[in-house]
Amino acid sequence: MSKHASLTPLKMLLFAFHATNTIILSYLPLYLKYKGLDGTEIGYVLAVGPMASIIAQPFWGYMSDKFKTVKRVIQVCLIGLLVMSVVFFQMDTLLPILTVGAIFYFFVTPIGALGDSLAQRRSHDLGVSFGTIRLWGSIGFAVSSLVIGEILTRAGIQYMIIPYLFFGVLAFIVSFKLVDVKVESDPVKLKDVSLLIKSKPFLIFLFFIMFLSVTHRANDSFIGLYIEQLGGSEGLVGVAWFVGVLTEAIVFATAGYWFRKYHPLVFVIIAGVLYSIRWFIYGSADSPWHIISLQFMHGLTFGTFYLASFNYISRLVPKLLQSTGHLVFFATFFGVSGIIGSLLGGAMIDSYGGGTLYAAMGGIALVGTILITIYHLLPYGKEAYIHEKSK
Q1: CA 80 from centroid of its chain's CA atoms
Q2: CB–CB of 126/7 below 8 Å?
Q3: Does any domain span residue 136?
Q4: Which residues form the signal peptide (predicted)?
Q5: Which helix (H) or strand (E) is 293 found in, with range?
Q6: Alpha carbon distance 20, 11 (integer Å)
Q7: Number of folded domains in the chain?
Q8: Distance separating alpha carbons of residues 61 and 181, to the nearest angstrom
């Protein structure tokens, strides 16, 4: 089997999983509104996923490093996704939605992180660009956002479980063909994990990027409701995501050409500047098409920010702890930031409207960009690795 053929199941897994992710990310807020929840309650539900991920990401990352398999852990999580999604979509009131949602997200949230961790390690082993593999997740996201948006506009938001299960089953089927990673070291022990916790550069970097990722996650949660506030439909929400993720795919696909030219932190800072500009402009939008026409900035901001941060974390973390390090990064990026973004964003959009929410996000992103610039100029930003104390 050629090296590129051996990557096909992994690309298909990323395609199918991110297609399911689109459905939850783009349409769950609208689905919950259909169920009768208000903006603040929707914020609670959207915060449950990140809360679960704070426990789930490091837990499944540790299990992956301990048992030296990414493939099997992904399969266990996919079974959880299929079973719990069926239960989750049967719930009608806030408390059952929150309770079942927490279990559902416990299995769902680590899949993207583990898929990316596997992609990063396989790309390293085969000498191909990580971006060219990760690109397939963006394509899945883009195709799903456009097609499912149209289907749900015509059929009704209440049927979103059907396309969700379709892509979930597809992801599970292709997972059996995945090529697992080989780790030539002793299984990771809990004391090894303390190396991450004691690393000041690792912790400071995670704290500073939260200022950017909080705004990113708030946008993930509320762009659909904001477009609706501005007079748009489910179909237009799908178009907005499609445009954004298309540019994200282009950024991932071309990363091999531009990414190695500068230190990853330089790209994080550039993404931060663009995030600030993007949110300030969104805050002044007066039509859904205003937002859609600027969605190309999603790729420039998230694509650049995510690739650069992921690359920097991979440098900071010893090989033995790659899955754990990646999933702690995910727990911060999508977990802690998601909770803050969902709760504050839900309260703000309810009380002051989407325009004020986006203006506030612009200010927060600007603070984060300044902090990361200072971090890059200080000695911490120059450190490339956590020195392995245990060989």
Answers
A1: 19
A2: yes
A3: yes
A4: none
A5: helix 288-294
A6: 15
A7: 1
A8: 14
Which amino acid appears at position 165 of this protein? L
Residue 29 has pLDDT above 90, yes or no: no
Q: Which amino acid is at 252?
A: F
Distance CA 255, CA 106 (A): 31
Measured at the CA of 112, the angle between CA 242 and CA 104, to 5 degrees, comes to 100
Token pair of 299 as six digits: 């790729």
In angstroms, the CA 208 to CA 388 distance is: 24
pLDDT at 317: 81
Torsion of CA 332, 333, 336, 338, to 10 degrees: -170
Q: What percent of the chain has pLDDT over 90?
A: 47
Residue 362 lies in a domain: yes
Question: Residue 169's pLDDT is what?
Answer: 97
Our separate counts of H helices and E strands in the chain read: 17, 0
Q: What is the mean pLDDT of the chain?
A: 87
Nearest to 160 by CA among 35, 291, 341, 346: 35
> Nearest CA to 261 among 219, 220, 304?
304
CA distances (Å), origin 206, targets 12, 125, 326, 344? 30, 27, 11, 20
| CATH classification of the domain holding 163 | 1.20.1250.20
The most confident of 56-65, 254-263, 335-344, 382-391, by mean pLDDT: 335-344
Tell me if 349 is assigned to some domain.
yes
Q: How far is CA 343 from the centre of its chain?
A: 17
pLDDT-derived band of residue 382, with 50, 70 and 90 as boundaries? low
**Domain span including residue 29:** 5-382
Q: 0.90 cut: is pTM over it?
A: no
